Q: What sequence folds into this?
Protein backbone atom coordinates (compact mmCIF):
# COMPACT_ATOMS: atom_id res chain seq x y z
CA UNK A 1 0.00 0.00 0.00
CA UNK A 2 2.83 2.36 0.95
CA UNK A 3 4.67 1.64 -2.30
CA UNK A 4 1.54 2.28 -4.34
CA UNK A 5 0.89 5.52 -2.46
CA UNK A 6 4.45 6.71 -3.06
CA UNK A 7 4.25 5.80 -6.74
CA UNK A 8 1.00 7.69 -7.01
CA UNK A 9 2.59 10.71 -5.34
CA UNK A 10 5.42 10.71 -7.85
CA UNK A 11 3.13 10.22 -10.84
CA UNK A 12 0.83 12.99 -9.61
CA UNK A 13 3.70 15.41 -9.16
CA UNK A 14 5.14 14.49 -12.55
CA UNK A 15 1.80 14.93 -14.29
CA UNK A 16 1.16 18.27 -12.60
CA UNK A 17 4.68 19.45 -13.48
CA UNK A 18 4.15 18.53 -17.13
CA UNK A 19 0.67 20.05 -17.36
CA UNK A 20 -0.46 23.27 -19.08
CA UNK A 21 -1.19 24.54 -15.56
CA UNK A 22 2.53 24.55 -14.76
CA UNK A 23 3.29 26.41 -17.99
CA UNK A 24 0.68 29.01 -17.07
CA UNK A 25 2.18 29.42 -13.61
CA UNK A 26 5.62 29.83 -15.19
CA UNK A 27 4.33 32.52 -17.53
CA UNK A 28 2.65 34.37 -14.65
CA UNK A 29 5.59 33.98 -12.30
CA UNK A 30 8.09 35.25 -14.88
CA UNK A 31 5.86 38.28 -15.46
CA UNK A 32 5.33 38.95 -11.77
CA UNK A 33 9.02 38.76 -10.86
CA UNK A 34 9.86 41.23 -13.63
CA UNK A 35 7.43 43.74 -12.14
CA UNK A 36 6.77 43.75 -8.37
CA UNK A 37 7.19 40.17 -7.10
CA UNK A 38 10.50 39.29 -5.41
CA UNK A 39 10.83 35.48 -5.56
CA UNK A 40 12.55 34.24 -8.70
CA UNK A 41 10.73 31.81 -11.03
CA UNK A 42 13.79 29.55 -10.84
CA UNK A 43 12.06 27.98 -7.84
CA UNK A 44 9.33 26.62 -10.11
CA UNK A 45 11.70 25.83 -12.98
CA UNK A 46 13.86 23.60 -10.81
CA UNK A 47 10.90 21.81 -9.23
CA UNK A 48 9.32 21.01 -12.58
CA UNK A 49 12.65 19.90 -14.04
CA UNK A 50 13.16 17.49 -11.13
CA UNK A 51 9.86 15.69 -11.62
CA UNK A 52 9.23 16.18 -15.35
CA UNK A 53 12.60 16.87 -17.05
CA UNK A 54 11.17 16.66 -20.57
CA UNK A 55 8.62 19.35 -19.75
CA UNK A 56 11.33 21.73 -18.53
CA UNK A 57 12.16 23.33 -21.93
CA UNK A 58 8.52 24.29 -22.49
CA UNK A 59 8.23 25.76 -19.01
CA UNK A 60 11.47 27.66 -19.51
CA UNK A 61 10.12 29.15 -22.73
CA UNK A 62 6.87 30.22 -21.06
CA UNK A 63 8.71 31.66 -18.06
CA UNK A 64 11.07 33.59 -20.31
CA UNK A 65 8.12 34.95 -22.27
CA UNK A 66 6.48 36.09 -19.05
CA UNK A 67 9.69 37.74 -17.87
CA UNK A 68 10.11 39.60 -21.16
CA UNK A 69 6.51 40.79 -21.04
CA UNK A 70 6.91 41.91 -17.44
CA UNK A 71 10.17 43.67 -18.21
CA UNK A 72 8.54 45.46 -21.12
CA UNK A 73 5.72 46.61 -18.85
CA UNK A 74 8.16 47.85 -16.21
CA UNK A 75 10.09 49.69 -18.91
CA UNK A 76 6.88 51.24 -20.24
CA UNK A 77 5.66 52.36 -16.84
CA UNK A 78 9.07 53.85 -16.01
CA UNK A 79 8.98 55.94 -19.19
CA UNK A 80 5.71 57.50 -18.01
CA UNK A 81 6.87 58.28 -14.47
CA UNK A 82 9.50 60.64 -13.15
CA UNK A 83 12.68 58.80 -12.11
CA UNK A 84 11.99 59.57 -8.46
CA UNK A 85 8.51 58.06 -8.77
CA UNK A 86 9.64 54.82 -10.40
CA UNK A 87 12.46 54.58 -7.87
CA UNK A 88 9.96 54.89 -5.02
CA UNK A 89 7.81 52.11 -6.50
CA UNK A 90 10.68 49.66 -6.78
CA UNK A 91 12.20 50.69 -3.46
CA UNK A 92 9.01 49.35 -1.89
CA UNK A 93 9.62 45.83 -3.24
CA UNK A 94 11.10 43.48 -0.61
CA UNK A 95 14.89 42.95 -0.94
CA UNK A 96 15.24 45.95 -3.30
CA UNK A 97 17.48 48.72 -1.96
CA UNK A 98 17.88 52.26 -3.27
CA UNK A 99 21.64 51.68 -3.46
CA UNK A 100 21.02 48.86 -5.95
CA UNK A 101 18.63 51.04 -7.95
CA UNK A 102 21.28 53.76 -8.26
CA UNK A 103 24.05 51.27 -9.06
CA UNK A 104 21.99 49.75 -11.87
CA UNK A 105 21.33 53.24 -13.24
CA UNK A 106 25.09 53.86 -13.40
CA UNK A 107 25.66 50.51 -15.08
CA UNK A 108 22.99 51.23 -17.65
CA UNK A 109 24.45 54.69 -18.30
CA UNK A 110 27.99 53.35 -18.73
CA UNK A 111 27.44 49.94 -20.28
CA UNK A 112 24.04 50.38 -21.99
CA UNK A 113 21.52 47.51 -22.04
CA UNK A 114 24.24 44.87 -22.10
CA UNK A 115 24.58 45.61 -18.38
CA UNK A 116 21.46 43.44 -17.94
CA UNK A 117 23.69 40.37 -18.01
CA UNK A 118 25.45 41.60 -14.85
CA UNK A 119 22.35 41.02 -12.71
CA UNK A 120 22.59 37.27 -12.12
CA UNK A 121 26.33 37.59 -11.47
CA UNK A 122 25.84 39.96 -8.53
CA UNK A 123 23.88 37.92 -5.98
CA UNK A 124 20.79 38.24 -8.13
CA UNK A 125 20.26 41.95 -8.78
CA UNK A 126 16.57 42.06 -9.83
CA UNK A 127 15.86 42.28 -13.55
CA UNK A 128 13.13 44.85 -12.87
CA UNK A 129 15.81 47.36 -11.85
CA UNK A 130 17.41 47.07 -15.28
CA UNK A 131 14.03 47.51 -16.95
CA UNK A 132 13.50 50.75 -15.07
CA UNK A 133 17.08 51.93 -15.65
CA UNK A 134 16.81 51.35 -19.40
CA UNK A 135 13.78 53.63 -19.50
CA UNK A 136 15.36 56.26 -17.24
CA UNK A 137 18.49 56.34 -19.40
CA UNK A 138 16.43 56.56 -22.62
CA UNK A 139 17.67 53.26 -24.01
CA UNK A 140 15.56 51.86 -26.84
CA UNK A 141 12.96 49.24 -26.01
CA UNK A 142 14.26 46.97 -28.78
CA UNK A 143 17.81 47.01 -27.39
CA UNK A 144 16.56 46.41 -23.86
CA UNK A 145 14.33 43.56 -25.04
CA UNK A 146 17.10 41.79 -27.00
CA UNK A 147 19.62 42.02 -24.16
CA UNK A 148 16.95 40.77 -21.76
CA UNK A 149 16.94 37.34 -23.41
CA UNK A 150 20.51 36.35 -22.43
CA UNK A 151 20.12 38.33 -19.22
CA UNK A 152 17.17 36.18 -18.14
CA UNK A 153 18.52 32.89 -19.44
CA UNK A 154 21.86 33.43 -17.76
CA UNK A 155 20.48 32.10 -14.49
CA UNK A 156 17.24 30.35 -15.42
CA UNK A 157 18.85 28.04 -17.98
CA UNK A 158 21.59 26.59 -15.70
CA UNK A 159 19.08 26.07 -12.88
CA UNK A 160 16.67 24.29 -15.21
CA UNK A 161 19.38 22.20 -16.84
CA UNK A 162 20.95 21.13 -13.55
CA UNK A 163 17.59 20.12 -12.07
CA UNK A 164 16.59 18.30 -15.25
CA UNK A 165 19.80 16.27 -15.20
CA UNK A 166 19.16 15.29 -11.59
CA UNK A 167 15.57 14.44 -12.50
CA UNK A 168 16.72 12.19 -15.33
CA UNK A 169 19.59 10.38 -13.66
CA UNK A 170 18.05 10.09 -10.19
CA UNK A 171 14.49 9.37 -11.32
CA UNK A 172 14.16 6.10 -9.42
CA UNK A 173 15.39 7.62 -6.17
CA UNK A 174 13.08 10.60 -6.59
CA UNK A 175 10.14 8.27 -7.34
CA UNK A 176 10.79 6.33 -4.13
CA UNK A 177 10.61 9.42 -1.90
CA UNK A 178 8.99 12.24 -3.89
CA UNK A 179 7.71 14.14 -0.87
CA UNK A 180 11.09 14.09 0.83
CA UNK A 181 12.75 15.30 -2.36
CA UNK A 182 10.22 18.11 -2.74
CA UNK A 183 10.65 19.09 0.92
CA UNK A 184 14.44 19.09 0.57
CA UNK A 185 14.16 21.22 -2.53
CA UNK A 186 11.98 23.69 -0.64
CA UNK A 187 14.46 23.85 2.24
CA UNK A 188 17.26 24.51 -0.26
CA UNK A 189 15.46 27.54 -1.67
CA UNK A 190 14.45 28.73 1.78
CA UNK A 191 18.13 28.66 2.75
CA UNK A 192 19.05 30.59 -0.39
CA UNK A 193 16.55 33.31 0.46
CA UNK A 194 17.55 33.48 4.11
CA UNK A 195 21.16 34.05 3.03
CA UNK A 196 20.00 36.55 0.41
CA UNK A 197 17.89 38.54 2.88
CA UNK A 198 20.64 38.51 5.51
CA UNK A 199 23.12 39.73 2.90
CA UNK A 200 20.94 42.23 1.03
CA UNK A 201 18.31 43.10 3.62
CA UNK A 202 14.52 42.95 3.38
A:
Amino acid sequence: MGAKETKFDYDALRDRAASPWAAGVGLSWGFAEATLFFIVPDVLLGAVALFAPRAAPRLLAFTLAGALAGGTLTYGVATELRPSQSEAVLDGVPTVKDSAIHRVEREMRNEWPRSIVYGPLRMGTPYKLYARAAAVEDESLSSFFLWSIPGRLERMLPVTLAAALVGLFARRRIARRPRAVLASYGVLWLTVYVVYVVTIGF
